[in-house]
């Protein structure tokens, strides 16, 4: 059975990856997660029920810990999801992003390189370091620009995007300089179960269900590409199975939408699934001051992974969104536990008193 050391497996995408890996028998998992605000206790509790799963609370930048875990677990691959991941928080506290995303990744790479160099020849050839990154490293597109390709020049605009770009460059350098068998994936906006309600879709679901305002930055016409999280996880697994060492792969849902349209679609879905005679969900939409430096448009050309590795998304935006809303409706206890006093304070800091 393959063994994966997953970092950040208590977060949104990492947890979905771990759950799929263990339910579909992709391999055994050791999850190394610091348990920041983004790691929900209910998510960790769900993972604990799964077979072939171990969890260690710790920092990817803690070199002695990482060294010990690599030596004792002897993984066939390290899949690096752990990051500070929210653009808005990176605007207020960029140092946290530099520490985890840049310094943490650099420390992890150094320990993984040492581990990999000590493996016997056959195991060394099989080993992979898979780095999970974002389309935000490519910067902002104009309305007529072609979508991002793997050879689009990097132009990160937010502290989050800059920290992820730096980590991508470190991964590239460890392949080029030391021969470490790395693969990097750059994915568009994910949505689905277990996403902390600070990102657009779960924030809007949770606010709407509570009958509270739905804050939309600026004119709501910023465009993102949307991908259901399980499709992303299956793409990562495909990259592990078939990806060419040293390559990068863009992953996207071929689903560009302005934020306002996403929220209106969500309101209409809620109107059908959870009708309230006293409330039209669309009436909760509230425009707020734009995010500083807000990128206007991201779009992904996922042709390379489709052509070369045969991956395709399974969900449409409509089917993925309905699954997502149904999950949040069925997990109201998870939602309530996420809406802590710290979380409510953060909402006010970010959006003002709504
Ligand atoms: P998340 O914020 O939901 O989860 C991050 C997880 O990493 C949390 O469990 C947190 O506790 C853990 N973590 C943070 N700092 C750590 C550290 N120093 N050591 C160990 N663990 C630490 O993030 P996500 O949305 O699941 O994103 C996962 C990865 O995918 C990130 O690298 C992100 O940049 C990338 N990505 C996310 C999206 C998206 O739409 N969410 C899109 C493209 C790429």
Binned, the helix content reads 40-55%
CATH topology of the domain at 3-195 and 228-255 and 297-314: Rossmann fold
CATH architecture of the domain at 3-195 and 228-255 and 297-314: 3-Layer(aba) Sandwich
> In what order do the strands lie side by side in the largest sheet?
3-2-1-4-5-6-10
Q: How far apart lie the N and C ends? A: 51 Å
Averaging pLDDT over every residue, what do you get? 97
Shape: globular
Q: What fraction of the residues are assigned to beta strands by DSSP?
A: 15-25%
SS content category: alpha/beta
Which ions and ligands are bound to the chains? nicotinamide-adenine-dinucleotide
Number of helical elements: 14
Q: Residue ranges: pLDDT <50 for 5 or more in a row?
A: none
Count the beta strands: 12
Determine the CATH superfamily of the domain at 3-195 and 228-255 and 297-314.
Answer: NAD(P)-binding Rossmann-like Domain
Please identify the top-level CATH class of the domain at 3-195 and 228-255 and 297-314: Alpha Beta
Any idea what the radius of gyration is? 20 Å
Largest sheet: 7 strands, parallel
H/E order of the elements?
A: EHEHEHEHHHEHEEHEEHEEHEHHHH
């Amino acid at each position: 059975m393959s063994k994966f050391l997953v970092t950040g497996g208590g977060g949104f995408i990492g947890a979905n990856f771990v759950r799929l890996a263990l339910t579909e028998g992709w391999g055994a998992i050791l999850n190394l997660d610091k348990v920041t605000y983004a790691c929900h206790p209910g998510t960790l509790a769900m993972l604990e029920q799964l077979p072939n799963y171990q969890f260690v609370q710790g920092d990817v930048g803690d070199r002695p810990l990482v060294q010990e875990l690599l030596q004792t677990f002897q993984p066939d691959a390290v899949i690096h999801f752990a990051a500070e991941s929210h653009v808005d928080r990176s605007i207020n506290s960029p140092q946290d992003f530099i520490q985890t995303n840049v310094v943490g990744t650099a420390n992890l790479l150094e320990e993984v390189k040492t581990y990999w160099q000590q493996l016997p020849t056959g195991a060394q050839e099989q080993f992979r370091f898979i780095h999970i990154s974002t389309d935000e490293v490519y910067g902002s597109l104009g309305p007529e620009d072609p979508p991002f390709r793997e050879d689009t020049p990097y132009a990160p605009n937010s502290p989050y995007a800059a920290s992820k770009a730096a980590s991508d460059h470190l991964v590239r350098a460890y392949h080029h300089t030391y021969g470490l068998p790395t693969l990097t994936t750059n994915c568009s906006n994910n949505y689905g179960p277990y996403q902390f309600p600070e990102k657009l879709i779960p924030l809007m679901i949770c606010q709407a269900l509570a009958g509270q305002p739905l804050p939309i930055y600026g004119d709501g016409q910023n465009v993102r590409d949307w991908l259901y999280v399980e499709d992303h996880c299956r793409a990562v697994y495909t990259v592990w199975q078939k990806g060419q060492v040293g390559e990068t792969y863009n992953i996207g849902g071929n689903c560009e939408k302005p934020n306002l349209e996403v929220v209106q679609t969500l309101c209409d879905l809620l109107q059908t699934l959870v009708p309230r005679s006293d409330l039209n969900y669309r009436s909760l939409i509230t425009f707020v001051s734009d995010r500083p430096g807000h990128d206007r448009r991201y779009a992904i050309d996922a042709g390379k992974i489709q052509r070369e590795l045969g991956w395709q998304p399974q969900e449409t935006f409509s089917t993925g969104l309905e699954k997502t809303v149904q999950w949040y409706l069925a997990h109201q206890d998870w939602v309530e536990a996420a809406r802590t006093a710290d979380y409510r304070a953060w909402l006010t800091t970010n959006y003002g008193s709504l």
